[in-house]
Amino acid sequence: MSKKTSSLLYLIIFLALVLRLAGISHGFPFIFHPDEPTIVQSALGVRFDPNPGHFDWPHFFIYANYFVFNIFAKIRDLAVDYNIQNFMIKIFPLMWDDTVVFYFITRVFVAVLGGLTVIPVYKTGKVLFGEKVGLLSALAFAVIPFHVRHSHYSLPDTPMLFFLSWGIYFAARILSQGYPIDYVFSGLFIGIAASTKYNGGLGALTVPLAAFLRRVLVKMRLSENLSETRGDFPYFKTVLNLILSGIFAFLGFVLGTPYSVLDYKTFSRTDSPLGAFWQFTNVGSVDFAEHVSKFFTDISFKISDDMGYTILVSLFLTLGVVLIRFLKGTFSRFDVSLMFLIVSALVFIYYISGFEKSRSQYYFIIYPFVSVVFGYFCVWVVNKISLGMKPLYFPVILLLFLAPFYLSVDTAVRFLRNDTRLDLKKFLETEVPFGTRVVYGSSDAAAVSKYVFNNAVKDPGKLPKGTRYYYIELNKGVSSGRAIFEVSNKGRIGPYITVEEMIR
After folding, report:
1. Can you say how many angstroms the Cα of residue 350 is from the centroid of all Cα atoms in its chain?
2. What does the mean pLDDT of the chain come to?
3. How many domains are contained in the chain?
4. Last residue of a domain, which of 384, 414, 444?
5. Are residues 485 and 342 part of one domain?
6. What is the pLDDT of residue 59?
7. Where are the transmembrane segments (predicted)?
8. What is the rounded distance in angstroms from the CA atom of residue 79 to the CA atom of residue 82?
9. 426 and 302 co-located in one domain
């Protein structure tokens, strides 16, 4: 790697980290996301019982947090031993606030893994198409808006994608080189990804696909363009390598979630979130007609919005370019590499769109593939448009990256401006007279309401007739009564909030 390339990659990593760490303490002292406590409490509970006892999520991320928390605890103990705790509190005020400090630590852990995912994405682009594509692929991943947003929470999706991206990189090496070690590491990282969140296991499909396309390159006599030809193993060796990859995938999963074997009875349950197989029933499924419809609607709206439009559009434009080359007889090894990325992305999109609940984070697994396709597409477009004229290079790249970059920066700024419910907390603490009854119209306002007023209730019918009370409404305009407080969620995280003064 040249010094210039290294410097650019460091800048991209820095950008990715800044976007994901901005406003990382959002919501404190409250934890508004309902799933974050599951991770933190399970990780803290490992010190008492190494079996978390529930398999709605696999356990690798829980154990990783336990390890990180232990390091933090040792540092805090050392601060006490050397009598520098007051100094440390000035630097890190949350250090002894056990109500939020572990949430802060795990969020930073997730954000850092999210930012560092640009490294395997860069390496995948580089091994398939060269350094320029690698850098642009990394930059594309760095500014995917929904990944920036989701990386602000202690949830397993972002860490899963970090490990899956390494698995994809080694699968790409199978396509370009085909050494047994690539099968081993690809399987291992995909197994760890599945042990972080189950859908990471879908990445296992990329290994046989890469092996198959490797054979296509050999059959089409395109392998002379590859950097290494000693990886052209006979058919039976390829099968053995696939078996080897599967073994290491299994080992990676079991090492991360050992109680999937040791407590298989709970792991295999389908009747509650305690079991892993419950996930398959929880997401539901749709019939074929609705599946096809959801495939196109999810692409057109959900995935497109989450990725910043131009990144996803490049997937289909590049597919068109590859098909045209195939029909014209100009198919090259780069087109085979593109098919590895495009086929994987489309298969995963189609599969996930068949869920009744096809949430945005389920599509995380397509992000590395689409990012590398976008990196290739950028270079291809620049070469077609600029015709070698350097002055056109940066304007074209800027235009292609404008939408995702703007949306990712907007997302980071929203977290910096913090949650609207903290404004509600301040209003209740400073403006609502002592003794006033408070009613919250949504459970999302319960934590703040009860934090300030222990006797806050959700049902105004429980109040005595004639009681004057303040009614907190989320995501709706004023319905009746007199609005005395209002905060918009425009450019903010959290709900739109109004508070009305009413009489029972």
Report:
1. 19
2. 91
3. 2
4. 414
5. no
6. 96
7. 60-79, 100-122, 128-148, 160-179, 199-218, 239-261, 307-327, 334-352, 364-383, 392-409
8. 5
9. no
d(CA 73, CA 480) in angstroms, rounded, equals 51
Tell whether 346 and 461 lie within a shared domain: no
Determine whether 218 is exposed, middle or buried from the number of CB atoms within 10 Å of its CB (0-12, 13-18, 19+): middle
Residue among 90, 146, 106 nearest 25 (CA):
106
Residues 319 and 431 in one domain: no
Which residues contact residue 98 at a Cβ distance below 8 angstroms, ignoring those fewer than 6 apart? none
More confident residue, 220 or 89: 89
> In Å, what is the CA distance from 447 to each residue of 26, 189, 213, 352, 422?
15, 39, 54, 34, 11
Bridge-based pairing state of the strands 482-487 and 497-503: antiparallel
Most confident of 77-91, 137-151, 212-226, 317-331: 137-151
State the greatest distance between any 2 C-alpha atoms of the chain, in Å, as a whole number. 87
Same domain for 204 and 273? Answer: yes
Look up residue 357 and give its two tokens. Answer: 């609940």
H or E element in which residue 105 lies = helix 101-116
Are 316 and 434 within one domain? no
pLDDT band at 465 (very low <50, low <70, confident <90, very high): confident
Tokens of 390: 């350097």
91 and 129 share a domain? yes
Helix (H) or strand (E) holding 304: helix 304-307
Can you tell me which residue has the tokens 């005395």? 484
User: In whole angstroms, how far apart are CA 167 and each of 46, 70, 253?
Assistant: 28, 28, 13
Indicate the pLDDT class of residue 228, thresholds 50, 70 and 90. Answer: very low
Query: In whole angstroms, what is the distance from residue 383 CA to residue 132 CA?
Result: 12
Instruction: For residues 21 and 118, state if they share a domain.
Output: yes
Q: Mean pLDDT, to the nearest integer, of 306-311? A: 95
Strand partners, 498: 473, 486
pLDDT confidence of residue 380 = 92
pTM above 0.90, yes or no: yes
Q: Which residue, of 393, 414, 435, is where some domain finishes?
A: 414
**Mean pLDDT throughout 380-398?**
77
Nearest Cα residue to 358 out of 303, 416, 422: 303
Distance, CA of 465 to chain centre? 49
Which residue shows structure tokens 């296992």? Answer: 204
Helix (H) or strand (E) holding 385: helix 367-386
Quote the pLDDT of residue 394.
Answer: 81
* Closest-CA residue to 213 (of 339, 378, 83): 339
**178 three-class SS:** coil
Does pLDDT of 466 surpass 80?
Answer: yes
Q: Is residue 11 within 8 Å of residue 19, measured between CB atoms?
A: no
- Mean local confidence (pLDDT), 472-501: 83
Could you list the residue range(s) of the whole structural domain that residue 99 is in?
3-414
Query: What is each CA distance from 42 to 109, 137, 471, in whole angstroms?
Result: 16, 35, 35
